[in-house]
Amino acid sequence: MPKPTILLALDPHSAAFCAAVKRQLQEFPAEQSCLIQTYTLTWDGQTFGFSADLDQFADTSFDLAQTHSKQAYVSKIRTQFSEATGELQTALIELLKTADQSKEAMSTTGYAYAAKRQGMEISSSHRIYLMLSVSNQFTRGVVFEIVRLIRWLFTKYFTHIPYSLEALLLLPGLFTQATTTDYGAAYALLKELDYKMTSGVELRLQVLKKHHLLITAG
Fold it and tell me: Which site from 59, 103, 132, 148 is most exposed, i.e. has the minimal number of CB atoms within 10 Å?
């Protein structure tokens, strides 16, 4: 059953994967692909934001050695994210509204009518995928804050919309120049994910592998 979907990349390497998904979507009818929205979280060292221009922020090198010198402390990132929560909350509300509006727009298309004739309907449930490189310290600094904020927004402003929240994980083995430090950082994030999930944080996990079919429109 087709569902309004948001795919949100949390780092430049994930943005590159997300951009590849966006190109795949061009093979689908426009009425169908409009259900899937793609964005990336942006950070210039001080300011957070969201952008639909994935290519501007994507790192297609998949070389972790180039990112090592750009890493920031997790505690610093979390502090800055907390300070920016107000602005990010407003931006996320607009993203969620856009996904809901895509469902409304599609419900009047020929694709929707054809789907109904086949016994299919556009789901009222929303899907949100967070895509992240698990060895990236930045993603470790923001992923749990993003999860908390999204869940709070659905509780506060989108109570009428059922939804699922999933994390798509890019492991160090996908990249070149991965070191023991990268695997150590990945282990630390996965361990924290396990702790959070056993403590009540609901987040489904999927591990992306090479040549993995990331997402389909339907």
Answer: 148
- Give how far Cα 163 sits from Cα of 5, 129, 130, Å: 10, 11, 13
From CA 136, how far away is CA 175, in angstroms rounded?
Answer: 12
Largest CA-CA distance found in the chain, in angstroms, rounded: 55
Report whether 213 contacts 179 (CB < 8 A).
no
The CA distance from 195 to 133, in Å, is 19
Burial 77-96 (b: 16+ CB within 10 A, else e): beebbeebeeebeebbeebb
Task: Tell me the per-residue pLDDT of 149-198, one tens digit each, with 9 for 90 and over.
Answer: 999 999 999 998 898 888 888 888 888 778 888 888 888 888 888 777 77
Lookup: tokens for 205: 């996990």
Q: Which amino acid is at 186?
A: A
